[in-house]
Amino acid sequence: MTTNNLAMRQSLLVGGRYKPWELALWVLALASPLLLSSHALIINEIAIVALFAVSLDLVLGYTGIVSLGHAAFFGMGAYAAALFSKLVMPDPLVGLLFAVAVSTVLGAVCSLTIIRGSDLTRLMVTLGVGLILMELANKLDWLTGGADGLQGVVMGSVLGKFAFDLSGRTAAWYSIVVLMLCFVIARRLVNSPFGATLKAVRDNRLRAMAIGISVTSKLSIVYTVAAGMAGAAGALLAQTTGFASLDLFEFHRSADVMLLLVIGGTGWLYGGVAGAIVFKLMQDVISSITPQYWTFWIGLFLVVLVLVGRERLIRPWTWFKRG
Questions:
Q1: Span 293-318, pLDDT tens digits
Q2: Looking at 86-238, which runs of residues are DSSP E strands?
Q3: Which residues contact residue 187 at a Cβ distance below 8 angstroms, ignoring those fewer than 6 apart?
Q4: Which end of the chain is more exposed for a tag (fewer CB within 10 A), N or C?
Q5: What is the spatial distance between Cα 20 and Cα 69, in angstroms, rounded to a whole number?
Q6: How far apart are CA 99 and CA 235, in angstroms?
């Protein structure tokens, strides 16, 4: 084994180790529905949006694929879970697995298109997929409810013991646990030799091809995995709210999740989690103060973030990232 291979192996081992602050962060996340029981509903939303952001970061931050239609997988997962509950069985875990499977298959099919063409082509293709699925959901109103949405989705108890309640604590714990499992998978993926090849493709695709990396297969695999995780986020939303609508496929869903990564940072999985926390808390606080102009203040925050720089504005997260 060469010196370079040993150095890379050591780097991957170090990067794959969990830091003390990471374990403390997840323990705090699990305790948050109990400590902040009156805010369990927004904690549930944060966990779902964080998972959605982590899935996009896999293709954007680690591979360099810009997607404007990531909401297609989010919406597909939501409708798959909701329809499974209504037509087959209300078990949330089985429905979640079904939604992930459907979204993963869709991601595998769509990956055949994003591996070809330029970045502009990928932007248009990913956006087009989302629009096509939204129109299909609108036309198949006998199945999806059309513009009225799919209503009356009733979920069973998690593991047959934990029923979803109005307080939202069960939903929050359910979403946090799913987020943790998906995060562990994503973290293991990016800190593996496969993850190192993804970064090589992101930094210089031609050089990666020249040294023998199968670029197309790497892009297809990571895009498929990310689609499955986005579908899991959509399924969580449908299961915990009991509703799925055309809004889940709209462009603003993809735009919002990109804003989360702008806030938290790309190429760092915790950036999606941090961005979700900051964005949802700002949205909740500002909209309660000024319901009509909350988007203006969030937009102003983003402008300041870009001009001043994330490194200066959010020192604690910078320290975590280095840790």
A1: 777 777 777 777 777 665 655 555 44
A2: none
A3: 16, 269
A4: N
A5: 36
A6: 6
Contact 192, 12 (CB under 8 A): yes
Whether the Cβ atoms of residue 56 and residue 67 lie closer than 8 Å to each other:
yes
**Domain assignment of residue 259, yes or no:** yes
Altogether, the residues listed in the chain come to a count of: 323
- Burial group, residue 119, by CB count within 10 angstroms (0-12, 13-18, 19+): exposed
Tally of domains within the chain: 1
3-class DSSP string for 66-106: CCCCCHHHHHHHHHHHHHHHHHCCCCHHHHHHHHHHHHHHH
d(CA 100, CA 263): 27
pLDDT tens readout for residues 44-71? 999 999 999 999 999 888 888 887 888 8
Residue 243 lies in a domain: yes
Tell me the three state secondary structure of residue 244: strand
Handedness of CA 78, 80, 82, 83 (dihedral sign): positive
Identify whether 315 is part of a domain: no
User: Angle 251-264/40-60 helices, nearest 10 degrees?
Assistant: 90
319, part of any domain = no
Q: d(Cα 64, Cα 202) in Å, to the nearest integer?
A: 5
